[in-house]
Amino acid sequence: MTLSSATLPPVRRVVTALDEAGRSCVLIDGPLREFGGGGYAWHTASVPADNSVREDAAPGAFSYDLFHGGGSNFFVIDLAPGERSSTHATDTIDYIVMMAGEVTLELEAGEVRLRAGDLVTDRGVIHAWRNDGPQPARYAVVTLPAHPVGAGRTV
Predict the structure, then answer these.
(1) Which of 27, 83, 108, 112 could form an SS bridge with 17, CB 3.0 to 4.6 Å?
(2) Is the pLDDT assigned to residue 132 strictly greater than 50?
């Protein structure tokens, strides 16, 4: 599923910066940088971030390697009906906002159904995402580096 799907509206990305005179301004106002099944809003190479960057810092492709480079990621995932992610864990803390539809968050000791408006804080544990419903689901994710828990990352 792509972010330009007819069933879910495109996601608008607005990024601020400072203009040449040092005033706050809009640097980017447009769509996410798409990858298969989602799109990137922004990536930082380190934490704390360098907010002086004026180039588009959204990667052009999804990679779990970006999660483990010491920076942050902000992206959106679309999950089609019947679709399931791989089972994985990352050495990150992830803040997730359900934007549309419903998904099931699979964990080793059970699962939880999530709906639009729900928030999740995933603390580096093994998990997967599954869409059992008839409608596409969309969720936004922010990842930040974290110390490993349990066996640590699987991807």
Answers:
(1) 27
(2) yes
